[in-house]
Amino acid sequence: MRIVSIDSSLGTQLLACDAEQAPAGGSVKLTVLAHSEQVDSRRHAESLGPMLASILGQAEVAEFPLDAVVAATGPAPFTGLRAGLVAARVLGRTRSVPVHGVPSLDAVARLALDELPEGATVLVATDARRKEVYAARYLAAGADDVERLDDFLVAAPEAALELGQADAVAGSGVTLHPVLAQGRKELAPVSGDTLTQVRVALARLAQAPAGTILDAEPLYLRHADVQVPTRRKRAL
Questions:
Q1: By the 8 A CB rule, do 64 and 58 touch?
Q2: pLDDT higher than threshold 90 for residue 33
Q3: Mind listing the pLDDT tens digit for each residue in 49-108?
């Protein structure tokens, strides 16, 4: 199964991989075929097209049909998240394949939980700008999925700590706001991960009825900074 995975939660990540069916009770096997990344959080629009063309042009990708697209749905800053999801939808439509969504924080949580003992909890906090973070706590759910323990939050780091007990912390927000660590193990200093979100998507699809498409609507926890006026102002 050939999959292209897109994440634009902070910088831009694209990845093409081949997925093999997981053995009973085991983790899905993924083979990376091509990968591209840029870290500038303000160059999504300029970067996505050339990066996608490069990924799709790789011999191991171009010679085989694409089966699905997996895209990060945030929460993340508005402009970058929108650019990645638009690119995913365009690719899905042009190749006539489904586009599956995975929340960015779910992927960060799964990446962190790979390094923790069974039953451990992790607080994921990613950069939301404006001295705030997107945050939620997680438990592992099997080898490839996660269970979210809270609603997504966008708030000051101190408010994220009020979500409750966690054995470790993860995400780009922890690097920016050391107050989140409080002596706990710090893991996965990222805002998303293209390979891990494929693992999560495939785990969820394996538990769902055939033909299920995972929700790919963006998780905007804030309104856009630029608002379209509802009506013209009258000149007096």
A1: no
A2: yes
A3: 889 999 999 988 998 999 999 999 999 988 889 999 999 999 999 999 999 999 999 999
Please tell me the distance from the alpha carbon of residue 189 to that of residue 191, in angstroms, as a whole number.
Answer: 7
- Please, how many CA atoms are within 13 Å of residue 16, restricted to the half-sphere of its CB? 21
**E strands in the chain:** 2-7, 12-20, 29-38, 68-72, 99-102, 121-127, 133-141, 145-148, 153-155, 168-170, 185-187
CA 133/CA 142 separation, integer angstroms: 27
The predicted structure's pLDDT at residue 78:
85
The pTM assigned to this predicted structure is: 0.90
**Taking phi first (over 0 means left), then psi (-120 to 50 degrees means alpha), and beta for anything else, what does residue 7 get?**
beta
Nearest to 77 by CA among 39, 138, 36, 132: 132
